[in-house]
Write a structure and sequence with these properties.
This protein has 161 residues and is an all-alpha fold. The chain has one domain. It is built from five helices and no strands. Helix 1 packs antiparallel against helix 3 and helix 1 packs across helix 5. The chain is elongated, with a radius of gyration of 18 Å. It starts with a helix and ends in a 7-residue tail after the last helix. 24% of the residues are buried.
Length: 161
């Protein structure tokens, strides 16, 4: 029973932090959409590479895709430290252990980032779903997947090692 309560508490903290990261992700994407993309595209779109990979909206909305990638990267770095120290209560600051955890965390982040961006991209571009809704759906699914991967493979219980 105590172990079950511990897992519930971990999940609660994990998803509270996930909700905060969703908010931060949204904020970063809106900054990109409202300020950064218009600024870059107005001043640097004559450079073909920038026009093609960042400013183009035909056939897909590249500023949104790039903004999504940037936002997910920033929020995963912040969330790693929140998860390590607050959710899974790992106190070790040893470089080797933290590096190994971060590498595993990052590899799973890549998988769930692909999942997040893919879901958001599909909802926005093929179903016409607004950014806000596609973002919440994609990140919620991604963080659920990520919790179980982190619990099982990244932040191992020392008793079971």
């Amino acid at each position: 029973m105590e172990e079950e309560n511990g897992i519930k508490k971990q999940m609660l903290y994990y998803f509270i932090f996930a909700a905060l990261m969703i908010g931060l992700n949204y904020l970063i994407q809106k900054i990109n959409q409202i300020w950064l993309a218009p600024f870059i595209c107005a001043n640097l779109s004559e450079i073909n590479l920038i026009q093609t990979l960042y400013c183009s909206t035909d056939p897909y909305n590249m500023p949104e895709l790039v903004g999504s990638i940037i936002a997910v990267g920033i929020t995963y770095i912040i969330k790693f430290f929140l998860d390590k120290f607050y959710v899974f209560k790992k106190k070790s600051m040893e470089i080797k252990e933290t590096s190994q955890q971060f590498i595993k965390y990052f590899l799973f982040a890549i998988l769930t980032t692909i999942e997040n961006i893919g879901i958001q991209f599909i909802f926005t571009n093929f179903f016409g779903t607004p950014l806000e809704i596609s973002l919440i759906i994609a990140l919620s699914i991604g963080y659920l997947t990520k919790f179980f991967l982190d619990k099982k493979y990244v932040f191992l219980d020392e008793k079971k090692d």
